[in-house]
Fold:
Amino acid sequence: MKSLRAFRGATQLTADNSEEMRGAVIELLEKTLQENSLSSEDLISILLTATPDLKCEFPAVGVRIFGLTDVPLICAQEIDVAGALPLTIRMLIHAESELSRAQIKHQYLRGAQVLRPDLERSSASESDSAQ
Structure:
């Protein structure tokens, strides 16, 4: 039975550039959908945040270019914390899924893996036990 689930992810850019932002958001979205077997019909809403150093455009532009025109989106600015990872976009997808919370594969790409090192360790443990 499907339940409401939250799927997290983040990606880091190399510069405040619209083209790079669009590509990074699309990559993050594609990877999250693929790794968690989600379709556009499963999606309820998507929240995207950007660090204060990203001003080129709204991260939601990449989601719309990807083709999700009927999913509610909202963008917000991350809290400006000293020492925080710069040039970073975070994503929270609410979706209906049959996955348990433990089965969800959150996606941290392009340097954003440092935000969730615990996920890297659990992925490594899973692949070690699969061999």
Summary: The longest strand covers residues 3-12. The two ends are 30 Å apart (CA to CA).
